[in-house]
Prior knowledge:
By secondary structure, this protein is of the alpha+beta class. It contains 21 helices and 24 strands. Helix 2 runs antiparallel to helix 17 (451-468) and helix 3 runs parallel beside helix 6.
Amino acid sequence: xxxxxxIVVVIAILVSLLVPQAPVVAASDYNYGEALQKxxxxxxxxxxxxxxxxxxxxxxxxxxxxxxxxxxxxLTGGWxxxxxxxxxxxxxxxxxAMLAWSVxxxxxxYVKSGQYKYIMDDIKWAAxxxxxxxxxxxxYYFQVGDxxxxxNWWGPPEVMQMKRPAYKLTSSNPGSTVVAETSAxxxxxxxxxxxxxxxxxxxxxxxxxxxxxxxxxxKSDAGYSxxxxxxxxxWSGWWDELSWAGCWIYMAGGDSTxxxxxxxxxxxxxxxxxxxxxxxxxxxCWDDVHIGAALLLARITNKxxxxxxxxxNLDWLTTGVGSEKANYSPKGMVYIDTWGSLRYATTAAFIxxxxxxxxxxxASKVNTYRAFAKSQIDxxxxxxxxxxxxxxxxxxxxxPHHRGAHGSWGDNFNEPxxxxxxxxxALVGGPDASDDYTDATNNYTDNEVxxxxxxxFTGILARMYQKYGGEPIKDFNAIExxxxxxxxxxxxxxxxxxxxxxxxxxxxxxxPARAYNKLAFKYFMxxxxxxxxxxxxxxxxxTINYSEGGKSAGVFPYDEAKHIYYALIDFxxxxxxxxxxxxxxxxxxxxxxxxxxIKWDGTNDFSYKGFAAKTEDNPNIPVYNDGSLxxxxxxxxxxxxxxxxxxxxxxxxxxxxxxxxxxxxxxxIDWSSVSGYVSPETxxxxxxxxxxxxxxxxxxxxxxxxxxxxKGYFSIPNIKITSSVKPATFNLKISKxxxxxRYIQNxxxxxxxxxxxxxxxxxxxxxxxxxxxxxxxAINMKDIMExxxxxxxxxxxxxYNASCDLNGDGSINMNDVIIAAxxxxxxxxxxxxxxxxxxxx
Length: 841
């Protein structure tokens, strides 16, 4: 039986190899000039610190102005990493190096397209920050911000309230990978600023050399890993970065010593598993830069060994190396990895095109490499039928996983349902191996954006512009018309003696996001009936029934001749900030009344009439910040100025833990959530029903569970574990009658988890048949006997047992025996480890 199964498996593998791969989809040229300019403005949206006066948008503001204060160092500036707000220096420095490389290769393209100033400003913005981080020859701050605290909050950077600790490397607490990558970034920056700013260029090179010596002296990531490994672990080690940085220092200063160093580290680059062949089944990325180093070394030394490394990699991406070739999606995207598939495809395109234009590239391969490069960037721009670049092309992404662009006021990626800003030029992660893509804010796999995503992408766009042209948009900017920000909403009920008001003061500011602590609003009243009866405004009573900090400041005249007055409700000292489920709004319940026995006509009040429009806001109740009108209109038509009002500095603090149901973006220490995909192996074996549905995923020892749908998807959103041990842990059991149960143990609370993925679900083995209503977590002769009891039965017969119909074809026959025999003698512990992503975003 085992031999029969082996033959079946071999035949299946042969068939899969013989199926022709879908051809790369050809596409016409795109407006590479427009795409390039938008790719660059993305880096302006990522800026941290005090923003320059010449910024080209009106929705980003100053942010993280106290970075480094905890260690007494100015660490403001730099780029926020992705859709979050941590400053991770490994991907940041990689991105700087790649952008500088692009300028080195294609300066003329940037000059001709009018984008030279912008890319140089982008590079310098980050390089200045990297220099700030290098506080001594053997001191380097490699991260600002706590990953867990940051990812547990969903809001714009201008109103962050969590602590942002700074993390430092020293000789006794080293991090060679990030230090060497920063050395490369500053050396590459030195190269491209050599002519335009020689002083800055020299300073960059000085810091680069010191950092290189620091990285060489430690050759360890012992200080880096405990802080950053959950986010940007260096799987390739530091050898590739030392080679990469050595090349750039040589190019910046001409010191051949650094080429010798770069070459000396090359034998330590990662190799393919089980071989001595330098790795080629990958591409340039933030973690692994040995392909970039090999390309530079090939051109600098003209040695065949580096040329062979390059062409083996590019052949694997295009025509194949022996029987091995990179995977492609049906519509033509080279599929290197799941998370951020297009960052790999577009960076590989940049590498391929640069190498193809080298005079020593094998002549017969030049056109293949160039065609590959163009096909990949065109895929990103729209050749598959849609764009994967925000604000560009046909059907672009509109829900990138980006806190700032989303503009949530309530720490919730579902509120608002649509993004408030267009994140122009951001390359999203991209589709899976089947071209499936979901444009959803919480889909960080498909829709994350990041500085490193746009780095190689920008480089290949510059090359396409140089070769094929395209028109940038004249005077392009991201100035938007602001939406509803600070306003009053609510209701009013008028009776003979009073007006009852239930009002909510909102701060949903996003152009840019702002905090306030000196807000007030005015409710305008027409008191003609009181004056006609011989009374005055002094006879009006303002009663605060309930308020979240608002106080009555009294009744004041506005137009005494017409008896127009207003009640002033003052929230001075109350911080209202668009950064949490309650912090963005403050309620006030107010009663306005006149003297006893006098008919109170509240319906003629200017502010009351504002409710008639039935809109979310009532502009007839204007809002003021420190006395200046910021929203609404007064009775004479006066409105706010067009200048954005000043904001309040948001104090940095640690949010108070809550025991309530956790928000979608942050989990207390005893909460968790789990989702993922499950699929039986038999789902593709001639099934007539979808066997992915009906798997129970249960948290052992609790009532929390979910059942998979017909796509194999499950979700258990809110799991609370009561345990004396903190943080609590829990175990999952995945089961279904007829299938061997899978157990996933020791998941830690305070995180969300994704189990496997739609393209690589948790596989379940069929064959564990219930006997007397129970399964024994093993596939053995008992199960074969259970199948034999109902052998040759069909679904319309009473003796048919659905648990024995392992391929769901409505018949129990030899196919089901073969399926069970495939994993005969296996128990639950024999399952291979399933991919688990710990999510903090």
